[in-house]
Amino acid sequence: MVLIINGDLVNPPTSPSAFRTLTLAAKVYCLYDILLEVEKEKDMYYKFLKRYGCMDFIDSIIFIGEEKGIRIDTKPHIQPTLVVDRIDINNLWLVLNYIGFDIKKLL
């Protein structure tokens, strides 16, 4: 399964710790291949995310439209898409629920 995250969601007000938690849960517990989708400048996103330890669970940075999968985006471009304006502590459980993460399975 493929999870595509729009590159705009790595920018503030997204919390780096919430973003890292999302990618950790998606990769380790839900077994997704995680792709960050950007319009341009892959290196800029890589350097920014690497600085905060957020590249650890991302498989690749791709350009828009290169792959198909479930999406987390700022706009409903392609379905299925969860539309959010940020990833932070206030909506992290909503996003984790969307990707199928179930905390009860860990207990």
Topology:
Elements: E1 2-6, H1 16-29, E2 33-38, H2 42-51, E3 60-63, E4 70-73, E5 81-83, H3 92-98
Parallel strand pairs: 1-2, 1-4, 2-3, 4-5
Polypeptide structure, described:
It is a single chain. The protein has 107 residues and is of the alpha/beta class. It has one domain (2-102). Helix content is 29%, strand content 21%. It contains three helices and five strands. It has helices at 16-29, 42-51, 92-98, and strands at residues 2-6, 33-38, 60-63, 70-73, 81-83. It has a five-stranded parallel β-sheet with strand order 3-2-1-4-5. It is globular and about 40 Å long.
State the gist of this model.
By secondary structure, the chain is of the alpha/beta class.
Descriptive terms for the model:
107 residues; globular
Tell me the Rg in angstroms. Answer: 13 Å
Structural class: alpha/beta
Helix count, DSSP H or I runs of 4 or more residues: 3
Give the proportion of residues in helices. 25-40%
Percent of sequence in beta strands? 15-25%
SSE string, helices as H and strands as E? EHEHEEEH
User: What is the β-strand count?
Assistant: 5
Return the domain count: 1
Query: Average pLDDT value?
Result: 93
Based on CA inertia axes, which overall geometry fits?
globular
Poorly predicted regions: none
State the end-to-end distance: 24 Å
Largest sheet: 5 strands, parallel
Strand order of the largest sheet: 3-2-1-4-5
